Amino acid sequence: MRLRSLLFVPGDRPDRFVKAAASGADALILDLEDSVVPARKAEARAAVAAYLNGERTLPLFVRVNPLDSGLIDDDLTATLSGSPDGLMLPKAEGAVSIAALAAKAPGVPILPVATETPAAMFQLGSYAQAAGHLAGLTWGAEDLPAAIGASTAREADGSYTAPYQLARSLTLFGAHAAGVPAIETVYPDFRDEAGLAAYAARGRRDGFAGMMAIHPAQVQVINAAFTPSDEELAHARRVVALFAADPDAGALQLDGRMVDAPHLKAARRLLASV
C-alpha cells in the first residue's frame, strides 16, 4: 500500500467523501474522533459504514476513538463489517496499545498516532514488537502540548520547539526500527502552498515516506514531494547496476564520487518505493 498522502475527512460529512476520493490522495482517513462532536458520533459511524460498503477506488482508513474513550467498541462494531483497509489509533502508547486493538480487530492494519500523551513518548521504541500489525507510524503536535500544559508546540517562525522536534524524531526512528513507513504529521495552513511544499520536502529528506493532509488542496503538493524524480530514479538505477557489475566491491566511483553499501541500500529503498 503506497502512502504518500493520507487525507482526513470528517466522518459526519459524507458529502465530502467523493470529492476527497477524487483528490489524488493515496488513502483517505475517515475520522470518527476529533472532527466529530459527541452528539454526531452515531451519525458519523453510519455514514462511514455506508461508504466502506460502497465501491472503493482507494484505500480507506478509519480513525477510531482512543482505547480508553468508551467509544471504540461502537466504532468497530459499526465499521469492521465494511473491511476498512486500516485503522488509525489515536493516543496510542506503544506495542501494548497495538496488541489491544489487534485483539478487537484481527487482521486489520493499524496506523498509530504515537505521540499524543506523555506516556506515549517512552514507548516509541516498542512498536517493533508489534510490526506485523502496523501500516505505519505517525505523530502529532496538538494533543501532547495540551496534555502537559504547554502553551504551544511552535516557535514564532512556525518551527517546532525542542520537545516536539524530539517527538517527531523518535516517531521517525521508531517507524524505521519497526520496518514500517514513517508518516509525517499535518501542515495546518492549507492555504500556504509554499510552506507546505517546504515542510513536505523536509519530511522526505529526513526519511518520512508520506504525510497526512487536512484539505484536498494539499494532496498534489504532498504527492509531488514524496514522489522520486526521474533524475533520482535514474541515479538509483545506476548505483544498483554499478554494484551488480562488481558485487565483491566495498566501494566504487560514480560521477567522481565514492559510493558504498549505504548508498546501495538507499538506492534500493528508493526504487522499491515506486
Number of β-strand runs: 10
Rounded average pLDDT: 94
Q: What structural class should be given to the helix and strand makeup?
A: alpha/beta
What's the SSE pattern? EHEHEHEHEEHHEHEHHEEH
Q: Segments where pLDDT lies below 50 for 5+ residues?
A: none
Strand content: 5-15%
Distance between the termini: 11 Å
User: Which sheet architecture does the biggest sheet show?
Assistant: 8 strands, parallel
What does this protein structure show overall?
The protein is of the alpha/beta class and 274 residues long. It has helices at 17-21, 41-52, 72-79, 95-104, 143-148, 162-178, 193-206, 219-225, 230-245, 261-272; strands at 5-10, 27-31, 60-63, 86-89, 110-112, 137-138, 182-184, 210-213, 251-254, 257-260. The strands form two sheets. An eight-stranded parallel sheet has the order 5-4-3-2-1-8-7-6. Strand 1 (5-10), helix 1 and strand 2 (27-31) form a beta-alpha-beta unit. The N and C termini lie close together (11 Å). The relative contact order is 0.11. The model has no long low-confidence stretch (mean pLDDT 94).
